[in-house]
Design goal:
Layout (H helix, E strand, L loop, with lengths): L1 H10 L11 H6 L13 H13 L4 H14 L1 H10 L1 H8 L3 H7 L1 H4 L6 E3 L7 H4 L10 E5 L16 H14 L6 E6 L6 H4 L18
Parallel strand pairs: 1-3, 2-3
Helix pairs in contact: 3-5, 4-5, 4-7, 5-6, 5-10
Length: 212
Amino acid sequence: MKNLYGKALLVDPALTKSTAFTREERERYGLRGLLPYDVAGISKQIDRVLGSMRCKSTAIEKYIFLNALLERNQRLFYRTMIDHIEEIMPLVYTPTVGEACKEFAHIFRTSQGFYITPEDRGEIATILKNWPEEDIRVIVVTDGERILGLGDLGANGMGIPIGKVALYVACAGIHPAQCIPIMLDVGTNNIAIREDPLYLGYPYPRINREEV
């Protein structure tokens, strides 16, 4: 069980320290042998992140790289963003997030938010219990209809709440576990998006106010 707990620490994005686990922690949590020898602290990890990120040739590639980092190591992602806010913020949010939203279904890897569709009507309070955290202080909601002047992007607009949560954590010091990005996925009138074979949202025309 001890070793299983150690493995969990390595893969949980909210808990992992990756190579920054000390010798004592590696012994305590059953991590010996699961990490390289060097105890590489957060500063060295940030240098590695920046080096890899700066090798990317486009902003959207850097966005995908940073989003993947967020999905596997929250501590490292936010420390990098806070320490290099002028460089990272335009990649995590505007202007890059607009392109990321347009490509959201194509670059999707791991769910980072909560999705509510018309099929959840009458059960929203119930399904919200599926969210792993309870002490929620900040809720960022979109319905994907008007995204940064790009129009109706449907569920692809989830990139906006995810990006705003990153800003609130890095700039306002809110704990990531206290934030929840929510997509009110009520369809989209963007036919091209709706007919995209990789689209992940509610694949119907947007419901109108009378149908709510």
